[in-house]
Amino acid sequence: MSTPTQEHKASDEGQVLADPTAYSDEPRLHAALTNLRANEPVAWVDNAPYRPFWAITKHADIMAIERENNLFVSGPRPLLMPADAEDLLQAQQDAGIGLRTLIHMDDPHHRDVRKIGADWFRPKAMRALKLRVDELARRYVDRMRDIGPECDFVTDIAVNYPLYVILSLLGLPEEDFPRMLQLTQEMFGGDDAEHQRGGTPEDMLAVLMDFFTYFASLTASRRAHPTDDLASAIANGLIDGEPMSDMDTASYYVIVASAGHDTTKDGISGGLRALIDYPDQLARLRDDPALMPTAVEEMIRWTTPVKEFMRTATADTEVRGVPIAQGESVYLAYVSGNRDEEIFDEPFRFDVSRDPNKHLSFGYGVHFCLGAALARMEMNSLFTELVPRLESIELAGPPELSATTFVGGLKHLPIRYSVR
Known about the structure:
Elements: H1 26-39, E1 42-45, E2 53-56, H2 59-67, E3 72-73, H3 83-94, H4 109-118, H5 123-147, E4 150-152, H6 153-158, H7 160-170, H8 177-188, H9 201-224, H10 230-235, E5 238-239, E6 242-243, H11 246-277, H12 279-287, H13 292-303, E7 308-313, E8 317-319, E9 322-324, E10 329-333, H14 334-337, H15 372-386, E11 390-395, E12 400-401, E13 410-412, E14 414-419
Parallel strand pairs: 2-10
Antiparallel strand pairs: 1-2, 3-7, 4-14, 5-6, 7-10, 8-9, 11-14, 12-13
C-alpha cells in the first residue's frame, strides 16, 4: 500500500489517536480531543506503527466527509491498523482470500451487498424479533438477581445478552455461542493484552481463518437446506444474479456476528456505568420510563463503541481550508464528534432526556450502521427490564476500559447491587 510523500507538520495532540492505550484513559483522551477541536480540527498524525493520516475531530466535518462518499472512499484503508497488518490484509484481498466486509467496500458493490441482509434489520423484522429480545432481557436480568449481590456486569451479562440476540438472528445453535464469543473478543481485542490471541498480524489472520472455517460449513449447510434466518439470506444472496464468493459470504457473517455483538456490549455496559456515575439520571429514568428512547440514544453517544472509520481521498480536496491530497487518508474521530461543543449542549453532561441528539455512533451516509435498529431495541429492552427492578447499585471496584483504536469499551465493570 503506497503512502503519499507530501510533507506535513505532525500534530502533538493528534498522536493520542494512534495510541490504543489512550482509549482506556478517558480523561487523557478527551483532554486531547477537546484541544484538537478548538485549535487543530484537521490535524496530521504520524505515529508508528501506523501510516500517517489526517485526524478529523469536528462533527460537521465528519458528516461532510461521510456525505462525499465518492470523493472519500473506504478502500483501501477503512480503519486504522498498523502498516504491516494493512499490507497483509491487502495481500490477502489481492489473492481473493482476505476479509472484505461492508466496511471495506464502496458503492456500487457496497450498495448491492448491503441489500442482501437489509430486510432482516427493517422494522417488520425487528417487530418479529422483539419477543426473543425481550425474553433474553428478562433472562439476563434474572441472572443478575440470581448471581448477586455482586458481579462483573461486562463478563457476566453484557457480553452474553447481545451475542445471544445476534446469533439467534443468524439462526446458529446455542452450543456454538461460546466459540463465537471467543472469536469476536479476539477480533476486536487485537490491541488489548487481555483479549488478543497474539500481537502479530499473523495472529489476527488466524482469528479470521477460524471464523471463515466455521462459516464455510454454515454456508454449505444453508445452501443445501435453506432456512428462515439471516444466515440463509447471506448464504443464498446474489450479486448480479451470481452467488457471492466464499470469502465475501464468510466476511458478511463475520461483520454481522462480531460488529453486531461487540458494539452493543459496549453500549450496554457503558450505559449502565453512566447510570451509576449519574444517579440523578437513573432516578429520572426510573420515575419516567417514557424517557427510555432518549436515554438509549444518550448511552450510545456517551459510549461511542465504534471509535473511528477512515476514508481515502480520490482527488485533491480540502477540509476546513486544509489541503488533503489525493491518496491521503482521513480519520473520522466519532468519539470527538460526539463531544463537539457546537452540536451538543454541555457535551460532557450525561442527560437521559437529551433531544435532539445528533450523535455519530452509527456513522452517517451510505455506511450508516446496518444493525442500528437492532442495537437500539436490545438496549431498550434490557434497561426497560432492569431499571424498574434495580433497588440499589454501586461500583464494587474500578471499571476497566479496553485498549483499542477501533471498537471497544468496558472490559470489566464490577458492581454491587440489589435486583428484585
